[in-house]
């Protein structure tokens, strides 16, 4: 299948790799043309998935590859909102740094 093929929930392989915290998989999928800002059926991007589960390495990689830090999901939450709500302080720090342009 395609690197951007969607599952029943609208997620791509990049969403899954970000969700499971596999930074090597995230890199490989992005190298093969994975869409860094693709949204699933809930409006979440791979950065939302990584922020939710607290994979700081995935958050860094996605941000370095152009992930939109201000993108909102269908509930109006940004990746930062999820990092704060689910107590992922390292992700919160990386996202705040990206929002400040650093």
From TrEMBL:
Domain of life: Eukaryota
Matches recorded under Pfam families: Ank_2
Keyword list, A-Z: ANK repeat, Repeat
SMART domains in alphabetical order: ANK (SM00248)
InterPro entries reported for this sequence: Ankyrin_rpt (IPR002110), Ankyrin_rpt-contain_sf (IPR036770)
The keyword Repeat is assigned to this record: yes
Placement of ANK repeats on the sequence: 9-41, 42-74
Name of this chain's protein: Uncharacterized protein
